[in-house]
Amino acid sequence: MTVFSGDVTVLLGELQRGCKEAEAELIPLVYNELRRIAGFHLRQERIGHTLQPTALVNEAYLRLVDQTRVEWRSRAHFFGVASQMMRRVLVNYARDRKAAKRGGKRVRIELEDPEIGVTPEQSEEVLVVDQALNRLTEFDPRQARIVEIRYFGGLTVEQTAEALGISPRTVKREWAMAKAWLQAELAERR
């Protein structure tokens, strides 16, 4: 069995090359941070959300380790992509709830956690924010990515800068512009 340095970036590279031993070492190194990001995402959701942080982490992690076209640049890049995956899981979850509410034929399995919950109104809000973010992507993909990483992932300005390979000053400027644009966009929809 190969012993790695415990460096997330090194382990991601090994995992990408097909080394299953790297995955076993990677999980304990990233799990707590992934759980923190999941908690951050779920705090943005409605009270009574049936998706648990553990389920969100597991779903995102499974999607992350299956990535074959991503070249992991750093630990921050990994967590930025993880945040994006969690956003997608939550948006899909909200869409499924909306479809089920309107008579969708999918079988719904609830993962209960009495401390975390999402109301139908908050599911609707997640979809509205997602749609606004998709429109922002059409105008300025980098600003949309910054919002995704900061808002949905809870990463700091410095972590966001590292994940995107830009300066913290640029992140702050773009973050301010993106927030203003999104606030105006969301105000129009209310």
Q: Determine the strand fraction and express it as a percent band.
A: under 5%
Question: Total number of β-strand segments?
Answer: 0
Biggest sheet overview: none
Instruction: Give the tally of structural domains.
Output: 1
Strand and helix order: HHHHHHHH
If you compute it from the alpha carbons, what radius of gyration comes out, rounded to the nearest whole angstrom?
17 Å
Shape type: globular
Count of helical segments?
Answer: 8
- The residue ranges in which pLDDT falls below 50 over 5 or more consecutive positions are 105-118
- Share of residues in helices: over 70%
Head-to-tail CA distance between termini? 57 Å
Which structural class do the helices and strands define?
Answer: mainly alpha
Mean pLDDT score, rounded?
75
Explain this structure.
The structure is a single chain. With 190 residues, the chain is mainly α. The chain has one domain. Helices cover 71% and strands 0% of the residues. The protein has 8 helices and no strands. The protein has helices spanning 8-16, 20-43, 53-65, 75-101, 120-139, 141-152, 157-164, 168-189. The protein is globular. The N and C termini lie far apart (57 Å).
